[in-house]
Amino acid sequence: MQIAGFLAPLWLITEMGALTVLFTLGMIAGSLAWYHFYARAHMVREGAALHLFERLGHQRDPGLDRELRTILTDEAPGDRDPFAELVTGAKVVDLQEPESYEAIVWRISAHLSQELGVPAERIAERFLRESRIGLTPHSRGVALPHLRLPALRTFRLVLVRVSTPIELAVEDADEHPSGGPVRALIFLVSPEDSTRLHLTLLAALAERVDQEGFLEDWRAARSEQDLKEALLHIERFFSLRVGDTGPTAELAGSEIRKISFVRGALIALVHRGGQVLIPTGRMRLQAGDRLTIVGDARAIRQLRKRFGGG
């Protein structure tokens, strides 16, 4: 059937007449000449997210170039920063004992299953299948397993630090070369109908982990909060310790809702006594608290000027 479908138009072309065929060939020739002498020199080929995915996952799809550039230039509605919200709300798993990638996937899938109401087998099989066929981006010691699932309403991020480097096995190592040993795994799960935001978040993660020094910051982190801050862009977050004296002393004893910060910045995490707390408006800050503040670059610059280096 396919062969017949290919050959049939050839007969139809001969029945169109010489004038029509010559006109069509002329249009093709003119289009090629226009591209060769004008359009090719004016095309913008840079696609930052595309090449990040290419380096991390060895999977390059030129058809995504324009779409990814558009996605990354879109602003989140209002003052929301989906990336910062996702990172600050992420679950952190810090593994001190050696485990295989498959064992880690099953561990994370069991956790996600409880939160999302999706069978752990279904989640784990998707993660493992994509890694086997080389679709899990990984490079520079970081892997980004990600998938979209139907019937989900929320996004979930799980950060995993391993003390012993692990390898992600692929079925065809020649076609999909290994990105090397992995010390950090960042699992992203999104609703199936949120393709644009899924790609936006994945691109933001890929951009951050591909920066020089990320893995050093990740390995040097001493707490759950440090691991999350390693993922946040330095110009988009500010780590502040509430002291007994100095510029931050005014924050001690104040309810968060009554603290006057600049517009575009908010307290995302409170580190207190070895625990990471999600702040509420009525939470009262204490001396010794360490705050993770996220916001736009302008607001963070103002806070740094007001409180110093933090």
In short:
With 310 residues, this protein is of the alpha/beta class. Helices cover 44% and strands 18% of the residues.
Protein described:
This protein is α/β, with parallel strands linked by helices and 310 residues long. Helix content is 44%, strand content 18%. The protein has eleven helices and ten strands. It has helices spanning 2-15, 18-42, 48-57, 65-73, 82-88, 101-116, 120-132, 195-209, 214-220, 224-231, 297-307, and strands at 91-95, 138-139, 142-143, 146-149, 156-166, 182-191, 237-241, 265-272, 275-277, 290-295. Strands 1, 2, 3, 4, 5 and 6 form a six-stranded mixed β-sheet that branches.
Structural class: alpha/beta
Q: Which of globular, elongated, flat, extended, rod-shaped describes the shape?
A: elongated
Low-pLDDT residue spans: 44-79
Alpha-carbon distance between the termini? 70 Å
**Secondary-structure element sequence?**
HHHHHEHHEEEEEHHHEEEEH
* Radius of gyration, in angstroms, nearest whole number: 25 Å
**Percent of sequence in beta strands:** 15-25%
Q: Which oligomeric form is depicted?
A: single chain
Instruction: Count the E strands.
Output: 10
Helix content: 40-55%
* Mean pLDDT, all residues: 79
